[in-house]
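Question (not urgent): is this output format expected?
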Amino acid sequence: MAWIDLIIAGLFETLWATTLKLSQGFQKLDYTLYTIVGMGLSFWLLAKAIKTLPLGIAYPVWTGIGAVGTIILGVVFFGDRLAPLTWVFVGLLLISIIGIKITVP
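Got this back:
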């Protein structure tokens, strides 16, 4: 269950990072509220996960999910452009996240 909480927490991190951009520096109230709620849920689920999982495992996985998810959303919805070599490193980050999950009970 801790791993599920952690994965969902990472997805909420992606959500709040995206709505943070859409809030235009907290100028748009609706996106500002989504950002705050997303942050709260993300941190709450991370806190639940680290009751069971080691902090040194949970935190990097949480930030990694958020990073990869935010990169993908940036490309898809905001037209962010990444160099091919950057995609290689994004792939390595994803492989690392999966590797951590596979090797930690």
